[in-house]
Amino acid sequence: MRKFCSLLFPLLATLALMQSCESVKAFLAKDLEEEDFTMGELYVDEYVKEVPFVPVVSEEARRSGNVNALGLERREGDNEQLYSAIQEWMGTPYKYGGTTKSGVDCSAFVGNIVRQVYKINLHRVANDMLQDVTVVSKNELREGDLVFFTNSKGRVSHVGIYLRDGMFAHSSTSRGVIISRLTDTYWSKHFHQAGRIRL
Fold first, then answer.
1. Integer Cα distance of 105 and 102 in angstroms
2. Fewer Cβ within 10 Å of end Cβ, the chain: N or C?
């Protein structure tokens, strides 16, 4: 009997501890689920299967090496630091909630680039980044401006960094960090607004 009790007591204590841990895990999971749902409502972006845009560079520019880090023909006044910073992230896979080069979502990518190039901290979520910019029209876009897109529910859920000639860099759900064009069917349809970072 004593031997049975000595086995039973640790077993019951372990079960009680496990039950307690499960309660804590369940509580935390519920809390995280609610938070993820809220974040997800803002982040949700349809899976956009796209072909990355490949810039066309003149043979003369190619021969002379007049091409920036992203493979675009250099122009006077280009922000070389911006192009180099984006190039470091090119091909990084998309990861919802990710913030590093092993996986990054759209707003973390934009936030990292803006912090590195302009030394400014933006809000973490695409929708909240609207507070960090002054609205500009599409035809006023210039290098370094942010471009915002909505999901099928009409909520701002995606953000990218404008380059030039209708091109923008972003973390795409299907391809990770790439260059796309504002005139692409999906992005044209879901374009919300453009904004200039308040320096």
1. 11
2. N
Superfamily name with CATH number, domain 44-197: endopeptidase domain like (from Nostoc punctiforme) (3.90.1720.10)
d(CA 110, CA 19): 43
Is 21 among the residues known to form the active site?
no
Catalytic residue among 5, 21, 123, 170: 170
Q: Does residue 170 carry a catalytic annotation?
A: yes
Say whether 158 is catalytic. Answer: yes
Closest Cα partner for 84 from 103, 71, 98, 101?
Answer: 71
Q: How far apart (Å, rounded) are the C-alpha atoms in residues 59 and 180?
A: 22
Rounded Cα distance between 173 and 106, Å, is 8
3-state secondary structure at position 197: strand
Measured distance between the N- and C-terminal CA atoms of the chain, rounded to whole angstroms: 77
**Among 21, 123, 158, 190, which one carries the catalytic annotation?**
158
Q: List the chain domain ranges.
A: 44-197
